[in-house]
Amino acid sequence: MADRKLQIALYWGAACGGCDVAVLDTNEFILDVAALADIRLWPIATDGKYRDVEAMADEELDLTIFSGAIRNSENEKMARMLRQKSKLLVAFGSCAHLGGIPGLANLFDLDEILKTAYLSNPSIEPGNSTVPRPHSEAGGHALEIPQLYPRVYKLDQVVDVDYYVPGCPPAPAQVKAVLLAVATGHLPARGSVVGASDRAVCDECGRHKAEKQVQKFYRPWQIIQKPEECLLEQGIPCAGSATRSGCGVRCPNSGMPCRGCYGPLPNVKDQGAKILSALASIIDSRDPEQIERILDDVPDLVGLAYRFGLPASLLQRRIGA
Amino acid sequence: MAEERIGVFVCNCGTNIAKIVDAGAVTQAVKEIPGVAVARSYKYMCSNPGQEMIAADIREFALSRVVVAACSPRMHEGTFRKAVEHGGINPYFLEMANIREQCSWVHDDPVAATEKAKALTRAAVLRVKYHEPLEKRSVPMCPATLVIGGGIAGLTAALELAEADQQVYLVERQDRLGGNVARLDLTAPYLDSARDLLRDRVVRVTRHPRIQVLLESRLVELKGFVGNFRPTVKTAAGELLHLEVGSVVVCTGYQEFDAARVRQYGYGRLPDVVTSFELEVMLRKGKVETRAGKKPRHVAIIHCVGSRSREFHPYCSRVCCMTGLKYAHEIKSAIPDAYVSDLYVDMSAFGKGCEDFYKKAAEARTLFLMYEKNHAPEIRLAGTDPEDGMLITMKERLSGEQIEIPSDLVVLMVGMEPRSDSDEMAHLVNISRDKDGWFIESHPKLDPVATTTDGVFIAGACQSPKDIPDSVAQARAAAARILAKIDQGEIAVDAVYAEVREEYCSGCRVCNELCPYTAIEYDETARRSHVISAACKACGCCVAACPSGAIKARHFTDQQIFAQIEGVL
Amino acid sequence: MAFEPRIVGFLCNWCSYTGADLAGTSRVKYAPNVRIIRVMCSARIDPTFVLKALSEGADGVLICGCHPGDCHYVEGNYKAVRRFAALKRVLRAYGIEEERVRLEWVSASEGVRFAEIVNDMTERTRKLGPSRVKPQLMADAAAR
């Protein structure tokens, strides 16, 4: 290990902050991190400024942990800047890895979104017509705010990424593993997904699996579950079979179906397509009308299949107007 | 992956491809694709020189993959795989692009067809890079055979196999052997006795130590695959017999068309309108009579009943014309002073001895009256009493006249149709039926007794209407094919099957219930699913369902298909 | 110059691919817009293939299998029906017109029917115009 401390940055794009909290959730370990490394930028926790980053030399940072998706010009600017200034750039969490929940915005036009958010929902004052714009004037001053892009991108659709740490958020144990790997230099091949297994959640899940044939799908609250039995077999759509494990099966262990946040397995190009294929394949019916009725039991099929990975999917977003 | 060296061979197929698709342009275009080491065009790729060219080029240019843009792979994939193997590389390193059946033969526009041929060939080139060396698996060939149906075809097939000292199980639904031929008196054109013909066969079959005859029995299930079938037969006693065979020959024959459906013939209403089979009963008794017991003076024979008809069956039943002439002869023999009229559409006298037979019938003063297809004659009572006879009204084509023919007895030449249980049979043995309901052969010209299901053969009328000589020929052909396989001792089963890559299987079990051949088993201890490759038929259903992409469809992998998608667009 | 749709066809080996070959041996003419990829069974069709084809610029995707009840692999086509039913809903959410992705049954003896389906789908896709999926993906990438 070098004498000099590791220079690291943690940054958030279009994010909720949960990934940063996940790093903090490593508890005392964060103190070890502080001992190992200089945190040069971490908006949630420290005082670093953008101009500090601009002033750095190329690859001065050993590691940037980037969470959140790319939704506006600021996200993109910082992604590019941090890429330039970092030896290693890690896409951290579902949003950076796959687009995440913000990625679901790709099902809507920007106009629709702005209208709903700023013009026509119950909490807006009647008569409001202000919608965020990149440039505006107020009281003789010019105001520049980042420009919203028409769609959400995952990090590697904008810059080259070295490693991916999946999860919404990544499990604290995985956070530790990644930071230690970087610190000790024991890293897998560039481009790998780290902190996750190559098998699906079912591998880690302790529920008992039997033959899978369903005649009805249920929302988790609609039935009293059998806690020892596979959720999918009970008719509760669980994405576990199509999702990488490594998370500790936190959701099914708590009675909730896996939502797919760790992303697709290594041999899968489009996670949503596989979730659909799995759900459809276990429907126990040959009658087209009955099949439609059974699918109707799932109110938001596209949301279920692409909750975390719409920008990472093959089509990436809805056809724009 | 090391850089592959791909050879592309574009066939002209004489003018079949070259007339519409610019083979030269396709060859040029394909040279631009990275990895293509050699590309050429040739007149007939499947010919010996063509195949030699492929093998020689593989050696000379150290090719690691081959693409042949030509006819359908269903035609010549086997041929080119052998050529590739001959050249020294694994036969699965071949991919074909179908630029004939699905391009030059179906498009008029040479520019569009050539663009499409380029795209299809490019797709094959991109795909073949991902081909893997697959080894054919060998499974032992069980030498026993199940023959379904104890008619002339079934009896012939059974004997042929048994005489070669192989075990045969002959399953017959009725309580006697002989099928439809057992209902005949004489056969056309030589007027041999059907009874004698059959008796010899039936006796030999019943006595043969290698044939187990199961009368009043039916096949209820067929599991397994070629060389290793496991049929279950329900016997007369009601018990289920589990057998092991290597091959199945389906000889279930036909049923006759229901003459009552042709209302203008009055079958079922008019007592002296009978079917061909009903006449056979009379002929075997030696007494041709009307219902009232009188010798008929005027007999009419009507051809094409239910056949060659827009309303009923469009096909020709093949045997009725000669059988009709046979009746003309037999009736004249039984009643020398009867007048026999033969009402026909066309006289189909295609077989050996048949034109002579036709001539003899004319010499015996049979009156031939031609009617127009789809304008069938009408039969009504001459008076109020059936004993007064009937009148047949028809438009005679050669004279152009509307005529009335008096008849005491009318014989309807009812056509052949697929048996009502043929759908069930097809599903049981996993073969298909064509639009008329006859079982589909592997290739109408070149492979009429095999089916798309390896190890299941069809012979006789169940494949399409045919006479005794052809049924016998097909039965013997099927037996010969089976004997050849038995002689080899092993069956080479296709190397294409699905396999679970254990390192990616999470034991989710989504695949388990999907396999129609129950070829997927789950290991409770290891918590992984596993495909039994010998039972796998490579449909790929589990592959598409596997949410981890852990199951690989050998020779139809995701990677290969993605490459094709990229190539065609 | 009329827009020529490019349609990817996935045909099952036993029924529909053979039916398409039959159209060839019968010299039945049809539009040259469908490029065929052979699979063993319609059950092999992963929804991923359809999405991949669309993302690579296909204006339409045609999937053909055996008629219900006649699948060479017993019930593979029923699995295709289920997957297709789920996929359709997602395609709708993506804004892909329903007529661009079709599931049809073609038996081994239905050469004429295959030709009719190709012609019909070509015309309908032509009316819909080119698919905007790939141009939009490329524009998105170029914008960054």
Helices and strands, with pairings:
The complex is a heterotrimer of chains A (about 325), B (about 575) and C (about 140).
Chain A: E1 6-12, H1 18-24, H2 29-36, E2 37-41, H3 50-54, E3 61-67, E4 70-72, H4 73-85, E5 86-92, H5 93-98, H6 110-119, E6 135-138, E7 141-144, E8 148-153, E9 163-165, H7 172-184, H8 271-281, H9 288-296, H10 301-305
Parallel strand pairs in A: 1-2, 1-3, 3-5, 5-9
Antiparallel strand pairs in A: 4-8, 6-7
Chain B: E1 6-11, H1 23-31, E2 36-42, H2 48-61, E3 65-70, H3 73-86, E4 94-98, H4 100-104, H5 110-128, E5 137-140, E6 145-148, H6 152-163, E7 168-171, E8 186-187, E9 192-193, H7 194-207, E10 211-214, E11 218-225, E12 228-234, E13 240-242, E14 247-250, E15 255-256, E16 273-275, H8 276-285, E17 298-305, H9 320-334, E18 339-344, H10 354-363, E19 367-370, E20 378-381, E21 390-396, E22 401-407, E23 409-414, E24 416-417, H11 422-429, E25 456-458, H12 468-488, E26 490-493, E27 498-500, E28 520-523, E29 528-531, H13 541-545, E30 551-553, H14 558-568
Parallel strand pairs in B: 1-2, 1-3, 3-4, 6-7, 6-14, 7-10, 14-25, 16-23, 17-18, 17-23, 18-19
Antiparallel strand pairs in B: 5-26, 8-9, 11-12, 12-13, 15-24, 20-21, 21-22, 27-30, 28-29
Helix pairs in contact in B: 1-5, 2-3, 5-14, 6-7, 6-12, 9-10
Chain C: E1 7-12, H1 16-25, E2 34-39, H2 47-55, E3 60-65, H3 76-93, E4 101-105, H4 111-128, H5 133-143
Parallel strand pairs in C: 1-2, 1-3, 3-4
Helix pairs in contact in C: 1-4
Sheet with most strands of chain A: 5 strands, parallel
Oligomeric state of the chains present here: heterotrimer
> Which structural class matches the secondary elements of chain A?
alpha/beta
Strand content of chain A: 5-15%
Rg of Cα set of chain C: 15 Å
- Major sheet: arrangement of strands of chain A: 2-1-3-5-9
The outline of chain A comes out as globular
Question: Total strand count of chain A, please?
Answer: 9
- Provide the CATH architecture of chain C: 3-Layer(aba) Sandwich
| CATH topology label of chain C | Rossmann fold
Helical run tally of chain C: 5
Contiguous low-pLDDT stretches of chain C (5 residues minimum) are none
Low-confidence parts of chain A: none
Q: Roughly what is the average pLDDT of chain A, rounded to an integer?
A: 92
- Give the number of domains of chain C: 1
Total of helices of chain A: 10
Order of helices and strands of chain A: EHHEHEEHEHHEEEEHHHH
Task: Give, in order, the helices and strands of chain C.
Answer: EHEHEHEHH
Largest sheet of chain C: 4 strands, parallel
